[in-house]
Write a structure and sequence with these properties.
Alpha-Beta Plaits, 14 helices, elongated, conserved putative lor/sdh protein from methanococcus maripaludis s2 fold, alpha/beta, 6-stranded parallel beta sheet, 7-stranded mixed beta sheet
Length: about 400
Amino acid sequence: MSQESFVEEVELHGHIIDSLILPKVLDEILTHGGSYVIKQMQIGERQSDPSRAVIQVCADSEDKLQEILDAIHDHGAVPTTSQDARIVEADMDGAFPEGFYSTTNHRTQIRLGGEWIDVEDQEMDCGILVDPEGKAARCIPMAEVRKGDKIVVGRQGLRVFPMQETARQNLFEFMSSAVSSEKPKGVTVREIAATMRRSKEAGEKILAVLGPAVVHTGSVEHICRLIRGGYLNILFAGNALAAHDIEQALYGTSLGVYLDRGLPAEEGHEHHLRAINTIRRLGGIKHAVEKGVLKQGIMYECVRRQVPFVLAGSIRDDGPLPEVITDVLAAQRKMREALAGVGFCLMVATALHSIATGNLLPAWVKVACVDINPATVTKLSDRGSWQTVGIVTDAEPFLRALVHDLGLNEL
């Protein structure tokens, strides 16, 4: 301790004990080769009361101290001596200045003119753009930066508010990030249904991120019932989901296999390409619905119920359908624009689109990820989407149970 002469006091505030924030911070300090002294500790008397801790962080070099402060910052530890955020103008398009602050998906504030203001459009792996008047700030992706933009650098004048629990009130919170195939799925599905009800009643939008296995497993009608019942307000997917949904609507097959019989159709391998060609000749999905060619399915219901959708392209796409956005940066922009007001996200059978969407969502949006592969949910958690409840199961049994629990079987 006597050799460690580089010191900084930091403060933690909130439900830092029940959420294990305090022990995480102390562990980070020790893991990075520092030491600590708890200078003050005020523990809330009731579950709803916040706690507060002032911690003296010690290290044997300035670099090590900064490394520790960087590590604990994302857990909400901020220096007790407040200074305004440091701002540097971007020196080129499409890149942040050196030393830029890289955002998390947790609520963040920066200090400008002695006042703390919320950072808008919270998203992980972005920078923070300050408006020219210095009175507002928002997250900005790297590719959107323009020369002269005012960008926050370093961690001075920043504070992060990690998601904290006073107590786990429901199964959704208790099972956060659970991926085991042995979890009680019936109970979990009921809790997800209850969460979707609460989101709908609160006027929040429900986003669905769907992969083509939804069609292959015979789950199209379940998704259509969610749309008709008002439990699916935005759809993110790729060309495959839409193409196979339309293939089923036009030919009764998915990947050339009849869904009602499980038998391959004659020349069925051509059906998805013929379906795409039909839609392209008609000018798009909406025109196909208006002209009476597309009469059923997920995309039909989206058009009919005015549910916005973003179809993001892939290098392997056939066609693609006219609505598919083949520029990935343009697709990201469309997805970001569509996220306003989303309170719940249901991801089913798509690793790529699920992870991409998880990267865009703030931490306070609850997420349910359903996939036969547990690695999909694991990757979401590894990428920082800690609010995800994972269910390892096939798409159809889950969606059938969800529709039943939401009382939508007759729609």
